[in-house]
Specification:
Blueprint (H helix, E strand, L loop, with lengths): L1 H6 L10 H11 L4 H8 L3 H9 L6 H11 L3 H25 L2 H4 L4 H6 L9 H12 L4 H8 L10 H5 L1 H16 L8 H13 L5 H13 L3 E5 L10 E7 L2 E6 L6 H17 L6 E3 L6 H14 L5 H4 L5 H11 L3 H12 L18
Parallel strand pairs: 1-3
Antiparallel strand pairs: 2-3, 2-4
Helix pairs in contact: 2-4, 5-6, 13-14, 15-16, 15-19, 18-19
């Protein structure tokens, strides 16, 4: 019932000034306009402007009307406030109607399905809901936040061609991360925490996901998991929400546990080694020294490169599992490294666990 009321809530396309009610009260009191002017000490011209809504009904006028009409001043003040609020809404609606083209660049259908936006039959109301989702009051502000900044993410082809889709995915991560309580960022503690998280690779998602979020939060890093969007081909992203709180945003793109963990440690590398003023995107097509450095960081922390020659010569599932035990990581990560080194993408594929989003 609550959802239905919200969905079909009536929104009038007009505003009624308090002067209309004042005219009705005058009629009930059998009082002429001239008589009301004399009794209130207002000019007839002032009353006419109030009747038409062209002049605000002040607190002082409300007090005078209370004495003359016996209608409480608070009612006149409330009518004035409601009128001005509705006028502002109508003006905003007119402004938004001229920006409906922007709405076509935002993946509203996906955001509605995810519960980020309310389903609206009225496009102007949907546009307003989309602006609220992004935390901006107008299209110009959205452009200022997501398009204008010369950040690393702008080099991503997806961000260049479909900023609405890209921003929608990142914004979901921001909102989730903002809800995560974190201690102030501690670089040394976070680096030590990564070794603990490395051991979690052997666990099931139901165990490692909440634990890694908790451990990272204790170091000032909020980990957000957001389902990949149709037109956003990214595994992860890193952004500093404040100087003392970083966000690591991850999807399950590719599904394999080896890719997931590589993405996490890749983003962790950005947190430890790169600046706090840029949004860094894990886009495989980016040729950026920072991305290459983050790749090397992730590879080294998961499996030190000195093991590469041994891994490339593995011949059986038993040998892969034995190597994983020795390294203290999941067999699927060893299998993934083998595939990367040998380019034999089908060998040991069955050892790589597939990660799936829980049904919501």
């Amino acid at each position: 019932m609550g959802t239905s009321r919200k969905k079909y809530e009536f929104e009038p396309d007009y505003a009624v000034p308090p002067g209309v009610t004042l005219l009705e009260v005058m009629e009930s009191l059998e009082m002429t306009q001239k008589e009301l002017a004399v009794r209130t000490g207002l000019t007839e011209q002032t009353l006419i402007r109030i009747f038409k809504g062209n002049q605000p009904l002040s607190y002082e006028t409300a007090n005078r009307l209370e004495l003359v009409t016996h209608v409480p001043a608070r009612m006149w003040n409330n009518l004035e406030a409601q009128y001005r609020e509705q006028l502002a809404k109508l003006e905003e609606r007119q402004r938004l109607e001229s920006n409906l083209q922007w709405l076509m660049t935002i993946p509203t259908k996906e955001l509605i399905e995810r519960g980020c936006l309310d389903a609206k039959t009225d496009k102007v109301t949907l546009l307003r809901s989309a602006l609220a989702f992004f935390g901006v009051s107008n299209i110009e502000a959205w452009q200022e936040v997501w398009v204008t900044p010369e950040v690393a993410a702008r080099r991503s082809l997806c961000f260049e061609t479909r900023p609405g889709d890209a921003a929608a995915w990142i914004r979901q991560g921001e909102l989730q991360a903002h809800e995560t309580e974190c201690t102030p960022f501690d670089k040394k503690h976070f680096k030590e925490t990564l070794q603990q998280i490395r051991g979690l690779t052997q666990e099931q998602p139901g165990v490692f996901m909440p634990e890694m979020k908790k451990l990272c939060a204790q170091s000032g890093v909020a980990v957000a998991f957001v389902r990949e969007m149709k037109k956003v081909p990214w595994n992860g992203a890193t952004k500093w929400l404040t100087p003392s709180k970083a966000m690591i945003l991850l999807s399950l793109r590719g599904r394999g546990e080896d890719k997931f963990w590589f993405s996490f440690f890749h983003e962790a590398g950005h947190v430890l080694n790169d600046g706090k003023k840029v949004l860094l995107i894990n886009d495989e097509k980016l040729d950026d020294p920072r991305e290459i450095k983050a790749d090397k960081f992730a590879a080294e922390i998961l499996i030190p490169t000195r093991y590469d020659s041994l891994i490339s010569r593995l011949q059986s599932r038993a040998e892969v599992k034995a190597m994983a035990t020795e390294l203290g990581i999941a067999p699927g990560i060893v299998a993934g490294r083998y595939q990367f080194l040998t380019k034999k993408w089908h060998v040991f594929r069955e050892l790589i666990r597939k990660l799936e989003w829980a049904e919501q």
